Amino acid sequence: MAARLLAEQFPAWAHLPLTLLEPAGSDNVIFRLGGAMTVRLPRGRWAAGQAAKEQRWLPLLAPELPLAVPVPLGLGRPSPELGYPYEWSVTRWLEGEVATRDTPARYPSTAARLAEFLTALQSIVPATAQLPGPHPELAEEPLHERDQDTREAIAATAEVFDADAMTAVWEAALNAPARSAAPVWFHGDFHTGNLLTDAAGRPSAVIDFGGLGMGDPARDLMIAYTLLDASDRAAFRTALGTDDATWARGAGWALATGLNAYTTYAATHPRVAAQTTHQIGQALTEHQRPSG
Known about the structure:
A hairpin with a 5-residue loop joins strand 8 and strand 9. The mean pLDDT is 94. Helices cover 42% and strands 14% of the residues. By secondary structure, the protein is of the alpha+beta class. Helix 7 (163-175) packs across helix 11. The chain contains eleven helices and ten strands. The protein has two domains: 2-94, 2-Layer Sandwich (Phosphorylase Kinase, domain 1); 98-288, Aminoglycoside 3'-phosphotransferase, Chain: A, domain 2.
C-alpha cells in the first residue's frame, strides 16, 4: 500500500526502497524511504488528522526548539482508488536511537536537556498569534475526561498493581488545582518511544507530534516516569520549575496513559507490558515520596 500510494502521489520517490520499521507505534505504520525520508501511514481513524497537523505546525515550531523534530516533505491524500482513507505523510529521516531507561546513565544531563526542550516549547507564541483563527486540531483533552476509563483500568489491574495507591495518585491529580495561566504548547505524547538519542546517549530529536496541542503542559511530564529515575526526576522538576499542582496532574497523566496502554496491549505485547509496568510503578513511587 505504501509503495502504491507513493507511485500515485509522489512518483519522484516511488523508486526508493521501503523498509518497515518495527516495533512501530500504535497510531502509524512507519517505513524508512530510501536513506533520507520516512513514510507514516495512520492505522485508523483515531490517528486521522495527525499528518496534516504536523505538516502545518512543525515548520513554525522547529526553529524555536533545541532538539530536532520531523521536517515535513509531503502530505499524502486519501486514495479511494487504492482503498486507503486517511491523509499520510513523508518527512525527513532523523538519525538516532530510541531512548531507553539506560539513557540518563549514559548521559547524565538528560534531565536538564529534556527540561530545556519543554521550556522552549512552552515559550513559543500561541497558535492564534502565528496563524489567526480557531484551531480545533490543537484542543486539549482535560484530565477529568479520563476518569471513568482510568478507574475501570485500576479495577481491571488490581491483581497486578496496588489499586489503593493508584487511586490515591489519580484522585490527587484530579483534585489538584487546575492551571490558571494561559495555554501553552504541549507535545502530548512525550515518552521514551518518541525521544531519540545520539551515539553518546544525548537527547537529539523528538518525534511523533500527533498529540500536539495547546493547554496544560502537565501531560508532557509523562517523560519523567517513562525515562527518569527518582533522582533524575527531581533534577528535571527543578530545571523545569514545576509547581506542586502541575506535578500532581503530571503523575495523573502518567498513570492514566500507562494504564490505557497496559490494558490495551500488554496481553499481546511483552515490550509494552514491561514499559508500562515501569511507568505505572514510577508514578506510584513518586507519589509515595515525601514532598519537599
